[in-house]
C-alpha cells in the first residue's frame, strides 16, 4: 500500500524532550519504519519549521518525510498552529491530486483536520489517531489549557468524519464513545517500544552510591514532575534525575525549569535533584538502566511511552493510575500505581521499591516480559496493517453497495 501519514507538528525527525516533541514523534517514526519494512510505500507529511529543510527526505529507515510549507518556516507552539491548517491541507490536496495514496493515517487533531480537508475530493480512507483529546485536557487543565477554544468541537467532527478512529488505550475508547463515536468505528492500537534498544542490562550489576530515581519526559506541568520532586522529601538519601526540557543554556529563560527548580529549593531537595536537560533518545536506554526506579506521575496520560520503555529495560516503575497506564502497567505485578497529584503516596511507593530488592527484581522481570510479549513494534505494525485492510474493505463494500442498482450513497 501507499500509506501517507500526516503528523503536522510532530516530525519523526525531531529531537525529543522539547515542549512539543515526545511520544507522538517516536510513534510516528516507528510505525512508518515498521510499515516500510513490510514493503509499504510510506510518506510522512509534517510542517516545515526551518527554511533549510529539504522538501523531501528519504530516511535510512526506508520512509520519506515531506516538509510541508504552511505558515512561517520556524518553530511554532502546537497550540498556535490552527491558523496554518488550511495552508497545510491545501498542500496535501495538491500533492494527493496527482497521486492519491491508498490510505491516510492522521496523528493528532489538527493533522486529522488537514488530512480530511486534503482528501475531501478523493476516494481515500482517512484513519485518525488523536494521541490526546481536547476534552480530557480541558477537564484536567481547566484555565491552564492553551488549546484553541474550537478544539473540542472540531475533534468530535474529525472523529465522526474519519473512516476509523484508533485509540491508544481502553480509557480513550470510553472518551470517544462519549464524543459520539460508535464502538464499531474505533479500534485500539497501543504505542510500541523498540525492543532491540530498550532491553534489560544483562546481568544487572548492583550499583554503589545513593539510590537513583528517574523522571523523563517533556517538561510540561501536567507531567507531574513537581509531584516527584515533592515526594523526594520523604525519600531520604536518594537522588532524583530529571531528563527532558531544553538544553542547559536555555534554562534561565524557561518558566517550567524555573518553577521546578523553585519547587526543589522549597522542598529542601535541590542538592539531591539533578536536571539533565534533553537526553538524546538513543541514550535513553542506558539512562533507564542506570537507575533503580522510574517514576511517571502525570495528571492524565493518553498513552505513556516512558513506563513501557522503563519496563522494557527491566526497571520497576511507579505510575499514576490514569489513562494508558491502566492498560500498560499492572498494579503490583509489573509496577506500582499511585493516585495522581499525591507526593506522599508516590514517596511510599518509591520507598517500598528502594527498600525491597526482591520486589524490584520481580516487577522489573515481569515488566520486561509484559512489554516483550505485547508492545513490540513487529506485532503492532501488523495490527495497524490489519486495521488499514479492514478500513479499505469497508470502503470498497460501501462503494459496491452504492453502485449496485437501487443502492444508496454511503
Ligand atoms: N524522551 C527522550 N529524551 C528526553 C525526554 C523524553 O528521548 O529528554 C522520550 C522518551 O524516551 C519517550 C518520549 O520522549 O520516548 C516521551 O513519550 P511519552 O509517551 O511518555 O510522553 P509524551 O511526550 O508523548 O507526552
TrEMBL record:
Keywords: Glycosyltransferase, Transferase. Residues 207-368 form the Glycosyl transferase family domain. InterPro entries: Glyco_trans_1, Glyco_trans_4-like_N. Residues 22-197 form the Glycosyltransferase subfamily 4-like N-terminal domain. GO terms for molecular function: glycosyltransferase activity. It holds the Pfam family Glycos_transf_1. This is Glycosyltransferase family 1 protein. It comes from Saccharopolyspora rhizosphaerae.
Amino acid at each position: 500500500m501507499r500509506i501517507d501519514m500526516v503528523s503536522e507538528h510532530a516530525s519523526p525527525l525531531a529531537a525529543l524532550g522539547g515542549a512539543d516533541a515526545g511520544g507522538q514523534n517516536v510513534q510516528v517514526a516507528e510505525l512508518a519504519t515498521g510499515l516500510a519494512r513490510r514493503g509499504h510505500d510510506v510518506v510522512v507529511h509534517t510542517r516545515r519549521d526551518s527554511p533549510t529543510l529539504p522538501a523531501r527526505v528519504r530516511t535510512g529507515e526506508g520512509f520519506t518525510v515531506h516538509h510541508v510549507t504552511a505558515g512561517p518556516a520556524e518553530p511554532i507552539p502546537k497550540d498556535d498552529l490552527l491558523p496554518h491548517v488550511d495552508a497545510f491541507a491545501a498542500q496535501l490536496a495538491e500533492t494527493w491530486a496527482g497521486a492519491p495514496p491508498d490510505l491516510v493515517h492522521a496523528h493528532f487533531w489538527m493533522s486529522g483536520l488537514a488530512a480530511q480537508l486534503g482528501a475531501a475530493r478523493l476516494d481515500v480512507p482517512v484513519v485518525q489517531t488523536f494521541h490526546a483529546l481536547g476534552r480530557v485536557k480541558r477537564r484536567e487543565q481547566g484555565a491552564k489549557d492553551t488549546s484553541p477554544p474550537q478544539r473540542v468541537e472540531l475533534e468530535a467532527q474529525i472523529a465522526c468524519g474519519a473512516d476509523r478512529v484508533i485509540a491508544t488505550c481502553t480509557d480513550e475508547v470510553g472518551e470517544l464513545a462519549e464524543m459520539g463515536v460508535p464502538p464499531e468505528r474505533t479500534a485500539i492500537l497501543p504505542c510500541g517500544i523498540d525492543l532491540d534498544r530498550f532491553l534489560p542490562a544483562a546481568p544487572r550489576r548492583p550499583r554503589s552510591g545513593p539510590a537513583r530515581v528517574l523522571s523523563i519526559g517533556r517538561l510540561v506541568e501536567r507531567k507531574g514532575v513537581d509531584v516527584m520532586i515533592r515526594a523526594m522529601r520523604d525519600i531520604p538519601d536518594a537522588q532524583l534525575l530529571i531528563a527532558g526540557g531544553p538544553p542547559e543554556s536555555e534554562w534561565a529563560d524557561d518558566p517550567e525549569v524555573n518553577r521546578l527548580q523553585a519547587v526543589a529549593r522549597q522542598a529542601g531537595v535541590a542538592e539531591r535533584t539533578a536536571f539533565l536537560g534533553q537526553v538524546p533518545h538513543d541514550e535513553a536506554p542506558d539512562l533507564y538502566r542506570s537507575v533503580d526506579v522510574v517514576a511517571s506521575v502525570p495528571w492524565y496520560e493518553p498513552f505513556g511511552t516512558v513506563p513501557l520503555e522503563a519496563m522494557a529495560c527491566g526497571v520497576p516503575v511507579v505510575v499514576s493510575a490514569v489513562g494508558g497506564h491502566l492498560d500498560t502497567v499492572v498494579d503490583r505485578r509489573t509496577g506500582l500505581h499511585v493516585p495522581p497529584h499525591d507526593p506522599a503516596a508516590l514517596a511510599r511507593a518509591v520507598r517500598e521499591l528502594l527498600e525491597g530488592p526482591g520486589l524490584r527484581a520481580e516487577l522489573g522481570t515481569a515488566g520486561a516480559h509484559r512489554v516483550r510479549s505485547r508492545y513490540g513494534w513487529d506485532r503492532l505494525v501488523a495490527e495497524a496493517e490489519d486495521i488499514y485492510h479492514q478500513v479499505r474493505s469497508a470502503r470498497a463494500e460501501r462503494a459496491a453497495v452504492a453502485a449496485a442498482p437501487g443502492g444508496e450513497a454511503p
